[in-house]
Amino acid sequence: MIATRYKAAIFDLDGTLVHSEPAWEAAKRQVLDRLGVRVPQSTYDAFVGRGVRGFLTEVLGSNLTDQHRTELANEIGAAADILLPLMRQPIPGAAQSISRLADAGLRIAICSSSPRRHILAALAQLGLADRISAIVSGAELPRGKPDPLPYRETLRLLDLGPAEAFAVEDALPGAMSAHAAGLTVIGIGPQSAKPGFLEYCNLRASDYSGFDRTMFASP
Question: I need a labelling partner for 64 at 20 to 30 A (CA). Which of 10, 23, 102, 167 fits?
Answer without folding.
Answer: 23
